[in-house]
């Protein structure tokens, strides 16, 4: 099985972390986000992945010089300009010479979805496209996907009022597509797969869906980027993992609770870290507090400083001694 993984976005919601690193190359516990995503595909039988690249594409190439990631062969397709979701899918599939049924996934979604189940259902019903759906409590933030009793998609409703939503099942960002779908996508322009391509397949009766309540998190926001890591600590997805790297240095006088402390990071005596991510090489100095926040690689949290309430400190940034950040980003975005 071949898959196109969409990783070309700018990751603006995760700035300043993404000012230097593409979103899918941000670390989750002990390895880049992308390796978690591709590793999951590999476990379900995918043996070749085409990365649809754009922003900082050189970072991906340097990370995987042998063109393999998580045991899966890689190919690269670099968009000449942003082409939106459908445009990126067509460009990547054609660049890789895909001419058979293939999978598409968003590169920032963490899920325990059985991709093989979607693949099998796609072929059982003879679909042109089959999409995975996941349930949410508040569908007003998403595009919801009503289906009939057999799973045929009836339409797409973008961000309906909560009390008017026809369903709480939303597009989960995993698709199985026939190559004929590529012919529905205009070349060389921005095309949304949700707003243009899928509705055209619905009109012809060829779009189906598979509902799954498996673990699903879009890790593209500060809250969810933190959540997927704490979920791994808590054993929400399989056995609980240890978030403290073997070469991280934590002073016996420091307090580190329910947090990830990555390779080469340092937490000094009297410092307090809770529900947080301390990235590789970062330093939390004496008496500082980091709580429910993310500290980027090489950053320094000064003595007695506070980094709180989903603050994000970018790579090599420094929070001065005694300063308090509440829901802030350093350096600040434009």
Q: Could you explain how this protein is built, in words?
A:
The radius of gyration is 21 Å and the shape is elongated. Helix 3 (84-95) packs across helix 5. The chain has helices at 33-43, 57-63, 84-95, 115-125, 193-203, 222-234, and strands at residues 2-6, 27-28, 31-32, 48-53, 68-69, 72-78, 102-106, 109-111, 129-135, 143-144, 157-158, 169-177, 207-211, 216-218, 249-250, 255-257, 260-261, 266-267, 272-274, 277-278, 283-284, 289-291, 294-295, 300-301, 306-308, 312-313, 318-319, 324-326, 329-330. It is built from 6 helices and 29 strands. The mean pLDDT is 93. A hairpin with a 2-residue loop joins strand 5 and strand 6. It has 334 residues and is an alpha/beta fold. The strands form 7 sheets. Strands 5-6-4-1-7-12-9-13 form an 8-stranded mixed beta sheet, with helices on both faces. The chain has a 5-stranded parallel beta sheet with strand order 15-18-21-24-27, with no helix packed on it. Strands 16-19-22-25-28 form a 5-stranded parallel beta sheet, with no helix packed on it.
From the structure above, extract its key features.
334 residues; Spore Coat Polysaccharide Biosynthesis Protein SpsA, Chain A; UDP N-Acetylglucosamine Acyltransferase, domain 1; eight-stranded mixed β-sheet; 6 helices; 29 strands; 19% helix
The residue fraction in helices comes out at 10-25%
CATH superfamily of the largest domain: Spore Coat Polysaccharide Biosynthesis Protein SpsA, Chain A
Structural class, please? alpha/beta
Class of the largest domain in CATH?
Alpha Beta
Cα-based radius of gyration, to the nearest Å: 21 Å
What's the structural domain tally? 2
Total beta strands = 29
CATH architecture of the largest domain: Alpha-Beta Complex
């Amino acid at each position: 099985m071949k898959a196109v993984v969409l990783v070309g976005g700018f990751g603006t919601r995760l700035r300043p972390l993404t000012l230097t690193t593409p979103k899918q190359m941000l670390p989750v516990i002990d390895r880049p986000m992308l390796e978690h995503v591709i590793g999951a595909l590999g476990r379900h039988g995918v043996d070749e992945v085409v990365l649809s690249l754009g922003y900082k594409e050189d970072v991906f190439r340097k990370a995987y010089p042998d063109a393999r990631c998580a045991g899966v062969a890689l190919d690269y397709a670099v968009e000449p300009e942003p082409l939106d979701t459908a445009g990126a899918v067509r460009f990547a599939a054609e660049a890789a010479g895909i001419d058979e049924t293939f999978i598409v996934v968003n590169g920032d979604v963490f899920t325990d979805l059985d991709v093989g189940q979607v693949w099998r259902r796609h072929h059982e019903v003879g679909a042109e496209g089959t999409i995975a759906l996941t349930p949410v409590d508040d569908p007003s933030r998403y595009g919801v996907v009503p289906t009939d009793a057999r799973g045929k998609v009836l339409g797409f409703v973008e961000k309906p009022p909560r009390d008017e939503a026809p369903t709480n099942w939303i597009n989960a960002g995993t698709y199985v597509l026939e190559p004929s779908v590529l012919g529905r996508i205009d070349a060389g322009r921005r095309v949304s797969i949700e707003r243009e391509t899928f509705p055209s397949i619905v009109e012809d009766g060829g779009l189906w869906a598979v509902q799954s309540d498996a673990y699903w998190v879009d890790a593209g926001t500060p809250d969810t980027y933190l959540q997927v890591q704490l979920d791994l600590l808590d054993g929400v997805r399989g056995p609980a993992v240890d978030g403290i790297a073997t070469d991280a240095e934590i002073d016996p006088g420091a307090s580190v609770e329910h947090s990830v402390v990555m390779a080469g990071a340092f937490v000094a005596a009297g410092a307090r870290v809770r529900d947080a991510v301390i990235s590789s090489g970062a330093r939390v100095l004496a008496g500082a507090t980091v709580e429910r926040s993310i500290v980027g690689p090489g950053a320094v949290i000064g003595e007695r400083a506070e980094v709180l309430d989903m603050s994000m400190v970018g790579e090599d940034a420094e929070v001065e001694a005694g300063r308090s950040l509440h829901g802030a980003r350093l350096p600040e975005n434009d």
